[in-house]
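[Solved] Which block belongs to which protein?

Original post:
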Amino acid sequence: MPDINLLEHALTDEMLVDIYASTDRDEISILYEKPLRDEVDYVSVSTETGTLLFHYKNHTVQRLGSALKDDLLEKFKQTDNVALFQIDMRNKLPVAASEVAVKRDDPNAPHIKETA
C-alpha cells in the first residue's frame, strides 16, 4: 500500500463547503466552490470522532475541517455513497460532479482528533 500524505490544511480552510443530507432518504451531497486538489477516490468518516476525510487518487488525504455534528454523522452512518458537486458561485450551477464511496472507520485512514 502506498504512503498516505495527510495535507496540513483542511478543505474548509481553502474554500466554502456545504453538506446537504436528505431528510427522507439516505443521500448526502457535498458542494464545494473550487477545484479539488485531485480526483476523490472515496471519503472516510470516523463514527467515533466525526472526522470526515477526503482520500484523493494521488494518495493524499485532506480533512473537511471541524467534526461532523451528530445529526449529520448519523446520516453518514446510513449511506454508502456521497455526491460531490463543484458549484460556480456566480451562477449557482454545477461545474463538476461525481459520486464516491463512504468508508466508515477506515483502518487505513489517518487518526485525527478534532473538536466540533
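(Second protein starts here: sequence line, then its C-alpha cells.)
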Amino acid sequence: MILLLVLGVQQRGVAKEPARGIAFGMFRVLPSVKLQTRWEDNVDKTMTGRRADQALLISPTVKFMTRWRNSAFTIDLGSSHARHRETGADNDYDDQSLTLALNLSPKRTLTSNWTYGFKTKHDDKSEVNSGAYSQQSLGGTTTLALTRLETVFGYDYATRRSTRAANRSVDPTRHAVLLGLRFQPAAKTSLFTSLGWAAAHHDDSDRDNGDRKLDVEWSWQATAKTGGRVGMGWIWRDYASAADTAATTLKALIDWRPRRETTVTLTAGRSLEDGGVTDRYFMSNTGGVGLNHRLTQAVALKGNAGIARDRYATAQRDRKWTMDVGFGYVFPRWVILDAQLGHEVKRSTAAGAGYDSNSVMLSLSGGL
C-alpha cells in the first residue's frame, strides 16, 4: 500500500508568543480553551446505516504551576464536551481529566518525576462495544546521573472501569516496573537499555497475564537536519490459563529537515497490545509519514498519512488507513486558527467491523 502524502496544520513551527499566565498566590495560572466544529459523514463508524452529523466541541483547560528551589508542582484540569445536531443521544459526551505532577531535583545528579491522573473518557466509535470509562493512573521515574551514565527506575499503575457492563470483565488493572541504563557517548547521542516487568489483572481471570521485557533504544541529533530514535525489544507474556506468547517489538521516529521551513517525519512501530473485548491480545504494525512546511511566520501546512495492521490471537485481521489535509494561522497573541480535512478507512475480516469516513474540522484555540 502506497501512503498518500497530504497537507494539514502545523503549530510547532510557527512563531507564536507563549501564554504567560496569571499570578495567583504561589501559583501561575494558565487558562486555555479550544472551540471546534466538526462535520463527519459516518459518525457511527459503520459499514452500513451511515449517518452524517455536525458536532460542536468545547475543551477548556486550566493549569496551575509553582516552583520552589529545584522542584516544581503542576495541577492540570481539563474537560471536553461534544454536542451533535442529529445524533446527540448516541454520540454526545462529556470528558474530564485531572493530572497532578511533581518534579523533584534535590541534587544535580538526582531527579524524580511523578504523576497522578484521573479521567473519565469515551472510546472512539471504531472500537468494539465502545462506551465511556474512568481511569486512574500513578507513575513516574527516578534518575541517578553519573557522568555519562544514568540509572533509571520507573513504576506505573493504571486501572480502568467501563460504564458498559459487558466490558468490565476485561478492564485491566496493571502494575509495571522498569530498570534502565542510559549511556551518552556524545552530547546529542544516547543508548538506553531497560528491563521491565508487568502484571495485569481482570475480572475475567483468563485474561490475567505477566510480562517480561527487554528494550534497547538509540537516539541521536546528528546535525541540524536529522535526528530521531530507533528501538527494538523483546516481550514474553505469560497467561494464567491460556497459551503464552512472545514477540519482537520495534519503534522508530526520524525527523529530516531539508530546509529551515520544512520537516519530514517518518514513524514505524510493532507492538503487542491488549485485545480488549475482541481477544486476549493482538500484534499491531504501524507506519506513518508527515510533512510540516511553514509558509510564513503566521501560516503553516502539514501532511500526515498512516497505516495500521492488527493481527489478533485468533483469526481476525484489521487494516486501517488515516489521512488529513488543512492549514493553520497563528494570530499575534496566543490564538491559533486551524482547518482540516480528514479521511479514514478500516477493513476487517470480522463482519461489520469495517468502515470509511470523511470529516471537516475548523477550530479556534487560545490561552492567557
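Accepted answer:
You had them paired correctly. Confirming on the second one: The chain is about 0% helix and 70% strand.
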